[in-house]
Protein backbone atom coordinates (compact mmCIF):
# COMPACT_ATOMS: atom_id res chain seq x y z
CA UNK A 1 0.00 0.00 0.00
CA UNK A 2 2.94 2.34 0.58
CA UNK A 3 3.16 5.35 2.87
CA UNK A 4 0.01 7.31 3.71
CA UNK A 5 -0.50 11.02 4.59
CA UNK A 6 -0.08 11.80 8.33
CA UNK A 7 1.31 8.33 8.94
CA UNK A 8 3.86 7.76 11.70
CA UNK A 9 7.36 7.80 10.22
CA UNK A 10 8.29 4.35 11.52
CA UNK A 11 5.12 2.84 10.04
CA UNK A 12 5.80 4.61 6.74
CA UNK A 13 9.37 3.26 6.72
CA UNK A 14 8.10 -0.29 7.21
CA UNK A 15 5.57 0.15 4.41
CA UNK A 16 8.11 1.76 2.09
CA UNK A 17 11.71 0.84 3.10
CA UNK A 18 13.31 2.93 0.34
CA UNK A 19 11.49 6.13 1.31
CA UNK A 20 13.62 9.23 1.89
CA UNK A 21 12.77 11.52 4.79
CA UNK A 22 12.74 15.20 3.79
CA UNK A 23 12.69 17.82 6.51
CA UNK A 24 10.63 20.96 6.02
CA UNK A 25 12.45 24.23 5.45
CA UNK A 26 10.80 26.20 8.27
CA UNK A 27 12.09 29.55 7.02
CA UNK A 28 10.59 28.87 3.58
CA UNK A 29 7.30 27.73 5.14
CA UNK A 30 7.12 30.97 7.13
CA UNK A 31 7.87 33.00 3.99
CA UNK A 32 5.07 31.26 2.11
CA UNK A 33 2.65 31.92 4.97
CA UNK A 34 3.49 35.62 4.85
CA UNK A 35 3.04 35.76 1.08
CA UNK A 36 -0.24 33.86 1.38
CA UNK A 37 -1.55 36.38 3.91
CA UNK A 38 -0.65 39.24 1.57
CA UNK A 39 -2.46 37.55 -1.33
CA UNK A 40 -5.56 36.99 0.81
CA UNK A 41 -5.52 40.50 2.28
CA UNK A 42 -5.41 41.87 -1.25
CA UNK A 43 -8.93 40.48 -1.69
CA UNK A 44 -10.37 41.21 1.76
CA UNK A 45 -9.24 42.94 4.98
CA UNK A 46 -10.98 40.22 7.04
CA UNK A 47 -9.14 36.91 6.75
CA UNK A 48 -9.34 33.89 9.05
CA UNK A 49 -6.62 31.29 8.60
CA UNK A 50 -7.88 28.09 10.22
CA UNK A 51 -4.68 26.18 9.40
CA UNK A 52 -2.26 25.82 6.49
CA UNK A 53 -4.97 24.28 4.30
CA UNK A 54 -8.03 26.51 4.70
CA UNK A 55 -8.97 30.17 5.05
CA UNK A 56 -12.22 32.14 5.29
CA UNK A 57 -12.61 35.66 3.88
CA UNK A 58 -15.41 38.16 4.38
CA UNK A 59 -16.40 39.38 0.90
CA UNK A 60 -19.52 41.25 2.00
CA UNK A 61 -17.96 44.65 1.30
CA UNK A 62 -18.03 45.99 -2.24
CA UNK A 63 -14.70 46.43 -4.00
CA UNK A 64 -14.55 48.57 -7.14
CA UNK A 65 -11.72 46.45 -8.55
CA UNK A 66 -14.12 43.60 -9.29
CA UNK A 67 -17.53 43.92 -10.89
CA UNK A 68 -18.88 40.67 -9.44
CA UNK A 69 -18.23 38.20 -6.64
CA UNK A 70 -17.30 35.64 -9.28
CA UNK A 71 -14.56 37.89 -10.64
CA UNK A 72 -13.26 38.51 -7.12
CA UNK A 73 -13.24 34.79 -6.32
CA UNK A 74 -11.44 33.96 -9.58
CA UNK A 75 -8.81 36.60 -8.85
CA UNK A 76 -8.33 35.14 -5.36
CA UNK A 77 -7.76 31.69 -6.82
CA UNK A 78 -5.18 32.97 -9.30
CA UNK A 79 -3.33 35.00 -6.64
CA UNK A 80 -3.00 32.06 -4.26
CA UNK A 81 -2.06 29.66 -7.04
CA UNK A 82 0.74 31.99 -8.15
CA UNK A 83 1.95 32.22 -4.54
CA UNK A 84 1.85 28.54 -3.61
CA UNK A 85 2.13 27.02 -7.11
CA UNK A 86 -0.86 24.87 -6.16
CA UNK A 87 -4.46 24.97 -7.44
CA UNK A 88 -6.99 26.40 -5.01
CA UNK A 89 -10.57 25.35 -4.25
CA UNK A 90 -12.71 28.49 -3.92
CA UNK A 91 -16.28 28.58 -2.66
CA UNK A 92 -18.43 31.68 -2.12
CA UNK A 93 -21.57 31.60 -0.02
CA UNK A 94 -23.57 33.57 2.52
CA UNK A 95 -22.42 31.30 5.36
CA UNK A 96 -19.22 29.51 6.28
CA UNK A 97 -20.73 26.07 5.73
CA UNK A 98 -22.28 26.90 2.37
CA UNK A 99 -18.98 28.41 1.20
CA UNK A 100 -17.06 25.34 2.38
CA UNK A 101 -19.42 22.98 0.53
CA UNK A 102 -19.13 25.12 -2.61
CA UNK A 103 -15.34 24.86 -2.41
CA UNK A 104 -15.52 21.06 -2.17
CA UNK A 105 -17.69 21.03 -5.28
CA UNK A 106 -15.56 23.51 -7.21
CA UNK A 107 -12.68 21.30 -8.26
CA UNK A 108 -8.97 22.28 -8.32
CA UNK A 109 -8.29 25.73 -9.71
CA UNK A 110 -11.97 26.65 -9.98
CA UNK A 111 -14.49 28.75 -8.04
CA UNK A 112 -18.08 27.82 -7.19
CA UNK A 113 -20.69 30.33 -6.03
CA UNK A 114 -23.84 29.62 -4.04
CA UNK A 115 -26.69 31.60 -5.66
CA UNK A 116 -28.01 34.40 -3.44
CA UNK A 117 -31.05 33.09 -1.58
CA UNK A 118 -30.51 29.59 -2.98
CA UNK A 119 -28.41 27.98 -0.24
CA UNK A 120 -31.06 25.42 0.80
CA UNK A 121 -31.46 24.18 -2.77
CA UNK A 122 -27.69 24.19 -3.29
CA UNK A 123 -27.13 22.08 -0.16
CA UNK A 124 -30.10 19.75 -0.68
CA UNK A 125 -28.03 16.80 -1.95
CA UNK A 126 -25.14 17.21 0.50
CA UNK A 127 -24.82 14.04 2.64
CA UNK A 128 -25.50 14.31 6.38
CA UNK A 129 -22.40 12.16 6.94
CA UNK A 130 -20.34 15.23 5.93
CA UNK A 131 -22.06 17.72 8.24
CA UNK A 132 -19.99 19.40 11.00
CA UNK A 133 -21.98 17.70 13.77
CA UNK A 134 -21.04 15.13 16.44
CA UNK A 135 -20.63 11.65 14.98
CA UNK A 136 -23.39 10.32 17.26
CA UNK A 137 -25.80 12.89 15.80
CA UNK A 138 -24.88 11.99 12.23
CA UNK A 139 -25.33 8.28 12.96
CA UNK A 140 -28.73 8.95 14.50
CA UNK A 141 -29.84 10.88 11.42
CA UNK A 142 -28.80 7.98 9.21
CA UNK A 143 -30.72 5.58 11.45
CA UNK A 144 -33.81 7.75 10.86
CA UNK A 145 -33.31 7.34 7.10
CA UNK A 146 -32.21 10.97 6.65
CA UNK A 147 -29.37 10.87 4.10
CA UNK A 148 -29.12 14.42 2.80
CA UNK A 149 -29.64 18.02 3.87
CA UNK A 150 -32.80 18.05 1.78
CA UNK A 151 -34.17 15.11 3.79
CA UNK A 152 -33.52 17.02 7.03
CA UNK A 153 -35.11 20.27 5.80
CA UNK A 154 -38.31 18.33 5.12
CA UNK A 155 -38.59 17.59 8.86
CA UNK A 156 -40.21 20.30 11.00
CA UNK A 157 -37.79 22.12 13.30
CA UNK A 158 -39.69 21.22 16.52
CA UNK A 159 -39.43 17.53 15.59
CA UNK A 160 -35.67 17.85 14.98
CA UNK A 161 -35.20 19.59 18.32
CA UNK A 162 -37.30 16.99 20.11
CA UNK A 163 -35.13 14.18 18.73
CA UNK A 164 -31.70 15.87 18.73
CA UNK A 165 -31.89 18.64 21.32
CA UNK A 166 -29.62 21.65 20.58
CA UNK A 167 -28.12 19.82 17.59
CA UNK A 168 -31.56 19.89 15.98
CA UNK A 169 -31.48 23.68 15.61
CA UNK A 170 -27.88 23.64 14.38
CA UNK A 171 -28.75 20.93 11.84
CA UNK A 172 -31.74 22.93 10.61
CA UNK A 173 -29.68 26.08 10.14
CA UNK A 174 -26.78 24.26 8.47
CA UNK A 175 -29.09 22.63 5.94
CA UNK A 176 -30.63 26.00 5.10
CA UNK A 177 -27.20 27.64 4.81
CA UNK A 178 -27.97 29.96 7.73
CA UNK A 179 -25.18 29.19 10.18
CA UNK A 180 -24.10 32.49 11.71
CA UNK A 181 -20.49 31.69 12.64
CA UNK A 182 -18.60 34.93 12.04
CA UNK A 183 -15.16 35.35 10.53
CA UNK A 184 -12.50 35.42 13.23
CA UNK A 185 -9.86 37.50 11.43
CA UNK A 186 -6.16 36.97 12.05
CA UNK A 187 -4.45 39.99 13.56
CA UNK A 188 -0.77 40.48 14.11
CA UNK A 189 0.00 40.42 17.87
CA UNK A 190 0.90 43.83 19.32
CA UNK A 191 4.53 44.57 20.18
CA UNK A 192 5.45 43.67 23.73
CA UNK A 193 8.03 45.59 25.75
CA UNK A 194 9.38 46.38 29.21
CA UNK A 195 11.38 49.36 30.43
CA UNK A 196 13.61 50.37 33.33
CA UNK A 197 14.71 53.87 34.25
CA UNK A 198 18.32 54.01 35.44
CA UNK A 199 19.20 56.44 38.20
CA UNK A 200 21.71 59.17 37.45
CA UNK A 201 24.09 59.35 34.52
CA UNK A 202 25.14 56.03 32.99
CA UNK A 203 28.89 56.23 32.35
CA UNK A 204 29.71 52.54 31.85
CA UNK A 205 28.09 49.20 31.08
CA UNK A 206 27.88 47.99 34.69
CA UNK A 207 24.38 49.40 35.20
CA UNK A 208 23.27 47.78 31.97
CA UNK A 209 24.82 44.45 32.95
CA UNK A 210 22.92 44.38 36.23
CA UNK A 211 19.68 45.69 34.73
CA UNK A 212 19.54 43.32 31.75
CA UNK A 213 18.50 40.18 33.74
CA UNK A 214 15.67 42.12 35.38
CA UNK A 215 14.44 43.35 32.00
CA UNK A 216 14.68 39.86 30.50
CA UNK A 217 12.72 38.39 33.39
CA UNK A 218 10.04 41.09 33.10
CA UNK A 219 9.73 40.55 29.36
CA UNK A 220 9.42 36.79 29.86
CA UNK A 221 6.58 37.26 32.36
CA UNK A 222 4.74 39.68 30.06
CA UNK A 223 5.02 37.33 27.08
CA UNK A 224 3.74 34.44 29.20
CA UNK A 225 0.80 36.55 30.38
CA UNK A 226 -0.16 37.31 26.76
CA UNK A 227 0.44 33.75 25.59
CA UNK A 228 3.07 34.93 23.09
CA UNK A 229 6.64 34.07 22.14
CA UNK A 230 9.32 36.43 20.82
CA UNK A 231 11.23 35.93 17.58
CA UNK A 232 12.99 39.30 17.59
CA UNK A 233 14.38 41.43 20.43
CA UNK A 234 15.30 45.11 20.23
CA UNK A 235 17.21 47.01 22.93
CA UNK A 236 16.72 50.78 22.98
CA UNK A 237 18.96 52.96 25.18
Automatic annotation (TrEMBL):
Sequence ranges assigned to domain UmuC in this UniProt record: 1-132
Secretion signal span: none
GO molecular function: DNA-directed DNA polymerase activity
UniProt KW Transferase keyword: yes
UniProt-listed InterPro entries: DNA/RNA_pol_sf, Rev_trsase/Diguanyl_cyclase, SulA_CellDiv_inhibitor, UmuC
One GO term (biological process): DNA repair
Keywords per UniProt: DNA damage, DNA-directed DNA polymerase, Nucleotidyltransferase, Transferase
PANTHER family reported in the protein's UniProt record: BLR3025 PROTEIN, BLR3025 PROTEIN-RELATED
Name of this chain's protein: DNA-directed DNA polymerase
Classification of source organism: unclassified sequences, metagenomes, ecological metagenomes
Amino acid sequence: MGAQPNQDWHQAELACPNAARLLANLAEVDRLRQELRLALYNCSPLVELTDDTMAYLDLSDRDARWATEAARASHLGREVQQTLLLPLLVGVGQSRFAAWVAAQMAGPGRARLVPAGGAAEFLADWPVAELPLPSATRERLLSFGLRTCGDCVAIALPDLQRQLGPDGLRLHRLCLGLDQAAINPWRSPPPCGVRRVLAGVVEDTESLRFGAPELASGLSRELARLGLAATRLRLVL
